[in-house]
């Protein structure tokens, strides 16, 4: 039955209107318009994550939250410092624990339970690492290292990705009170001096952080997005408003300030999109809009814009905004994971919209409010709250370890068939590493396959597609009683003079690794290596625009240099477009083939295997084999320009031969994800070890050719 998205939204609004919510803030200081602003922020983020059309800039909701936090926290700390001459750090952090900790821990526990039935063991392990990052207040740093691009569709399945913003806020909470206290001490504990010194300090933080944010946005975009120092200026913007005395003559302009602020916020949510460089200059729009909106309410809470924001259901959604934000993303990610990584607007509205809002209300009603009102003994005093808070941190860290180490060892019985298919891969011997910077290469003895104690006669050089053919190589090597040296770095083309570009950064580790292998070639030739086997996902380095893919292109790097910064370049736009990338790959591959010929080495280029639209193990088991196949015409079209490029290289190089296993996967009309009950793929583009071995007889002639010395011209 079709589900009407508008009906879902209407139902959610009706649900909110039926709830009776009240803020925990003291009535005398409560500003309902701020809850209305929170509602705008969380709805923008949630609708953007769900994929509702028209909300392309909804990600700026997080920036709105940062400004609100800076405004509220700085105002409270300044008031406490100037009125009492001190900051009660214990009480401050106890309030933060009560506000953030219990709901977060509840969400983690529920997600961990659901993940046992939804996620496969490897992904449970990843989830555990994410949870440990959450517990250690460093989720943003974890995702900077492992997720890179927040906006890539592959991030849809990263269950705790949304906690990066919580980590940024928590790091702000750790630093800002101590900075204020240090300023107070340096001012001789004199409130007047503090009042005079605080604005210049905030302006300095604002200017330095903004400059750093803008510079990184156009040089290393992910760092600008995830790091707290590049977001500190947004907190500082809210703080400056909180501590700045407002002239009485500004009061008549409250509606103008609030109205312009609201227009800037709506324009940002509706007008921006994820293809733009972000944070970048455009982040100034939602931050300025937030400050102006808050300024309007600060000048006159009775202005029309603030009155509108202070009405239901906006205030109710704002009160639930923390829980709504906590719940919506894991539900979306788990739903999409179960749905083979695909988005579905009706399903996502139900999970990330209606169900998340309901869970937010339940959490608020039965967990957050009783704890914030100190009705539970464990949170009734500051001392008890701090003990409970640290216990929550330790408990969450332990839950992360449960997900990492225990759940994968006792997988759900419903996953057995899936695990069997995904486990059909070659287990590599030794400890052949892929170091973070691409260097140093592991010793040869740790990277040999086939007849491991035999002479090393061939080099298998490439990316993860070289690995998925390794069972084929190893089978033939054992028949010939020889060893094959494996030099593989996943996500890296085996070309010493190009550098892949993706996720806002240069993949210099790829270039480092390939150059180290190139430098090793003369010695390998002297030791008896006669040829190179190269199976590479060339499509993956040519600005491939495919759902769930990290879009990567390549730049020419020269034999020893590296490209300049990519701050002004976007994948998909020249020079990082597909045509240019394919040309760069072809030229680099021609140079590589010529160098191999100069050394007396042969090169076997394996043409790309057909790729599937859905991951076959999950697809076949959940939807049936027929739903997972692709047409031969489509598969041929996807690889056509790559095949033409590889054939052109081979036609000009006497030491190069082509091998194509395409017909092993396809008949005249269809390429099969599974046949005769045997699943052929581990995921969308990596084949199983059984499938690789099944092609050994067909590959043997070109394998034997690579073992023979290269004839001199």
Automatic annotation (TrEMBL):
One of its GO terms (molecular function) is acyltransferase activity, transferring groups other than amino-acyl groups. InterPro entries: Acyl_transf_3_dom, Acyltransferase_3, SGNH. Residues 432-701 form the SGNH domain. Residues 1-27 form the signal peptide. GO terms for cellular component: membrane. Residues 33-364 form the Acyltransferase domain. GO terms for biological process: lipopolysaccharide biosynthetic process. The chain crosses the membrane at residues 43-76, 97-119, 200-218, 278-296, 317-337, 349-367, 388-407. The keyword Transmembrane helix applies. Keywords: Membrane, Signal, Transmembrane, Transmembrane helix. This is Peptidoglycan/LPS O-acetylase OafA/YrhL. The lineage of its organism: Bacteria, Pseudomonadati, Pseudomonadota, Betaproteobacteria, Neisseriales.
